[in-house]
Amino acid sequence: MAELQLKVVKNTGDGIWGKALNNFNKVLYSGSTLYNFVINSKRNALLKASGNYENITSIPNEAKRNSVTEKYEKAYDNYLNTLEKFITDTIYTRAQKRVSSIKENKILSQYYEVNSLKGSEYCEYKYKRQILLLSMDFENVLATKSGFYVDKYMKFYTNVMDSLYRGTMRHYAVRLTNQSEDKSSNFEKIYHLVEDYIKNVLTYLPETEGRKKIIDGYKKFVEPIDLYAKKEINSIKRELYLLELGLEIFSYCLPILAAEECYIDLIQRARIAVPNTYISADKFEMYNLLLDAMESYQYNVLAKKTVWDDNSEKLAHKAFWDKFSEYKKLERIDFDEYKRLREVLFVTEDMKYLKKTNQEMKELRAYYRDRMKQLGGLRKFKNTTKKMNGTWKTRRRLSA
Q1: Which residues have CB under 8 Å from 302's CB, separation 6+?
Q2: What is the DSSP letter of 218?
Q3: Fewest Cβ atoms closer than 10 Å to its Cβ: which of 83, 177, 178, 297?
Q4: Long-range contacts (CB closer than 8 Å, 24 or more residues apart) made by 375-384
Q5: What domain range is 322 assigned to?
Q6: Is residue 344 included in any domain, yes or no?
């Protein structure tokens, strides 16, 4: 209807009806009470259609099921289009007049960032557009509504947002396993997606033991990290924690192949960061973070891996895992000895990996050797020298 009105205004020029319709459009899409009424009506129609769609499995008639599905999809599209028009007309106009708030400027910048993906990454654009619009209106509902209405909308919001985030994660995982894609940008997107899901969706889901564990882990290990101090160390630490939380949340949407790519990238960055850290305490902290990343990689990827490219790699990992499981028994008996054996085992394994992949990393190898000297982890050779009777003469003396 709005598009039709705009065409009429354009065709009638500056006539009486043109000015009247133009003024009506300005009032309708200017953030006024009338525009809020339009959004409320679209939202109420969507909630009604959503309630009918939830009980679709109990409808025996296939034609009725198709009708309910069609009404829900139509109401959902109308709702999203109304919210998008609010951004393009009202917020954009306010930003042009420089009367917009900080929140509105943030929404507008996010909208343009998402809209830029439309030509190159339509699948990602489709998911992010819905996430942006639903998040924007959810904040308005929490601010203006209360009681039963908020509970009803929150049920719809959490169900839809959960499926949108999982679909986005599957899209990133597929792109990550594609060798022709730029993986560096996908790593950052995965970590941001995990953090946004915890903040925007998991917080509003029903209370469960698993939900509480993830939120407590995020507040304890991720939130306190300051990215401005010890930037590289804290950045790797933060992403490692988010990856572990993401494997718990998106267990089926983030497969082992994609998680392995993330761990390989984090471990390689930690290897490079160890020799490039010059303060001894920070270097040792980075070194321990490297060991933690290797252990997490063993637990979350290699221990669960069922398909191997080479059978020799499978056997080597089995031998490594058996040895590590034996050391793990000492954790409660003699923790210091367990930590020593664990460090020696992981460093020895990483030295083999560096040699196999032809990576020099001389400074990292030197740091490894220094640590092994302190821990007594270097391989000892037996003294096989023998004492022989007789006198030894130099070659020059023999020739003379």
Answers
A1: 317, 321
A2: I
A3: 178
A4: 375/340, 375/343, 375/344, 377/340, 377/343, 377/344, 377/347, 377/348
A5: 308-379
A6: yes
pLDDT tens-digit profile of 30-39? 445 667 788 9
Is residue 366, in this structure, part of any structural domain at all?
Answer: yes
> Contact 105/95 with Cβ under 8 angstroms?
yes
Measured from the Cβ of residue 373, the count of other Cβ atoms closer than 10 Å reads 10
Q: What is the pLDDT of residues 334-358, one digit of tens each?
A: 999 999 999 999 999 999 999 999 9
Cβ-based burial of 18 (10 A; exposed 0-12, middle 13-18, buried ≥19): middle
Q: Rounded CA gap, 133 and 136, in Å?
A: 5
> For residues 254 and 173, what is the distance between their CA atoms, to the nearest angstrom?
6
pTM of the model: 0.83
In a domain, 371, yes or no: yes
Place of tokens 């460090």: 343
Q: pLDDT tens-digit profile of 63-81?
A: 888 898 999 999 999 999 9
| Other beta carbons less than 10 A from residue 47's beta carbon | 16
Residue whose token pair is 């000015």? 19
Q: How many domains does the chain have?
A: 1
